[in-house]
Design goal:
- The structure is a single chain.
- By secondary structure, the protein is of the alpha+beta class.
- The chain is built from 5 helices and 6 strands, in the order H-H-H-H-E-E-H-E-E-E-E.
- Strands 1, 2, 3, 4, 5 and 6 form a 6-stranded antiparallel β-sheet that branches.
- Strand 4 and strand 5 form a beta hairpin.
- The two termini are 31 Å apart.
Length: 179
């Protein structure tokens, strides 16, 4: 199938409205005040649609916002997935350090963002590390398995033994599935 453009029909185009250019994805921005309001209301368990409506009312209507409701949902989802709130990140790092002290073959990798919050975690114990040498030819992983309270999917890396049995080769938590 040829994907090149061969015909342009100008009658199907619409004039660009300067008032609606704010809705183009590249022009949409959550300002600091909106982010702060979203964070505070999320911590207070205020429903997101109510928070969005309050933001609309505060600025005097939808046409005065530089973002849409989907942007607020994406922002809150991203904030909830940031691993490291409530001290859990520190506890995880301490646990992994302890595991490493008990066994030199325990391996972990932790990615952090600009605020030094944990966003991705990968770990493998000694037994799984050894198994990956023997059974790591084919590895599968499923990002839809489970999520934790941060909505981070748990990713088991699974191989297949010579007797067609599954074997765990490693684990991970990801803040987004595009990682």
């Amino acid at each position: 199938m040829d994907s090149r453009c061969s015909v342009v029909v100008h009658e199907h185009n619409h004039d660009i409205s300067p008032t609606k250019s704010r809705l183009i994805r590249g022009n949409r921005r959550l300002n600091l005040q909106a982010k702060r309001t979203l964070d505070i209301n999320d911590q207070a368990s205020v429903r997101l649609n109510k928070t969005f409506r309050s933001l609309v009312g505060h600025v005097g209507g939808f046409e005065n916002l530089d973002f849409v409701e989907c942007d607020t949902r994406n922002y809150i989802g991203q904030q909830r997935r940031v691993f490291g709130k409530e001290g859990d990140g520190q506890i995880l790092m301490q646990h992994f350090s302890t595991m490493r002290e008990l066994n030199n073959y325990f391996y972990y990798e932790i990615d952090t963002n600009a605020e030094n919050r944990i966003i991705n975690v990968f770990w493998v114990d000694a037994r799984s590390k050894a198994a990956s040498m023997d059974f790591g030819d084919v590895v599968s992983f499923d990002t839809t398995y489970l999520t934790n309270k941060y909505d981070m999917p748990f990713i088991p890396f699974v191989g297949v033994k010579h007797h067609r049995q599954s074997i765990l080769l490693g684990c991970g938590l990801l803040s987004s599935e595009d990682t």
